Amino acid sequence: MKKSILEQLNEARASRRGAVTVASEEEGVRQLLLEGEMPDDALGQAASKVLRAGKAGTADVDGEALFLNAYVPPVRFVVIGAVHISQALAPMARAAGYDLEIIDPRGAFATPDRFPDVTLHADWPQDVLSSRPLDAYTALAAITHDPKIDDPALIAALEANCFYIGALGSRKTHGRRIERLTDAGFGQAAIGRIDAPIGLDIGAANPQEIAVAVLAQMIAAFRKRGMESLV
């Protein structure tokens, strides 16, 4: 791999940005494609596909066989609220291969006893996220049902363009949330990125089922990212 390409790849990985190397049998690695800057051609479409899948693949472009290798930052799954849904969600996310951390300023809820082997932050979201900022490879689920806790996290997620943003609450509750976010300066398109009520509509009736719905919705958002323009 050329030094210039390796340097670009290291920069992408350091900034948690997806990238794809393009190689041929004759030349080896000859090109680096960055997420968000894919060309609008057959190569760009093939690179986007392997990036969404998170694994290497091959493509035949203009009669040439190319090997594409995806470099995808690990997903960071941030849950706002040390509640019953979070207790069910933590082991499910771990089993699916996602690192999950929980933020909740209510120290009585965010305890190691309730969440063994989980990264906990018993502090306000705005304080935690100022030193641990969100990014496009972060999923955020706000499930405290308390605007004082959820809203700052949702604002941070919208500003960081998180690939998944979900919020607990009824349609009426979300309607009031929309009003607050509108007052905070967000437009309809941005607010529309929030999945609320949170989770796939599977008729979930208890915390465990809601956790399944949330995790499934997050995974779908991750695997389908970048496909909006194809719809």
What report would you give on this structure?
The protein is built from eight helices and ten strands. The chain has 231 residues and is of the alpha/beta class. The chain folds into two domains: 3-71, no CATH class; 76-223, Rossmann fold. Strand 3 and strand 4 form a beta hairpin.
Fraction of residues in β-strands: 15-25%
Q: Taking all residues together, what is the mean pLDDT?
A: 93
The CATH architecture classification of the largest domain is: 3-Layer(aba) Sandwich
- The residue fraction in helices comes out at 25-40%
Put simply, the count of helices is 8
CATH homology superfamily of the largest domain: NAD(P)-binding Rossmann-like Domain
The CATH topology annotation of the largest domain reads as Rossmann fold
Query: Helices and strands: which structural class?
Result: alpha/beta
How many domain modules?
2
Characterize this entry briefly.
The chain has 231 residues and is α/β, with parallel strands linked by helices. Helix content is 39%, strand content 22%. The strands form two sheets. The chain has a six-stranded parallel β-sheet, sandwiched between helices. The chain has a four-stranded antiparallel β-sheet with strand order 2-1-4-3.
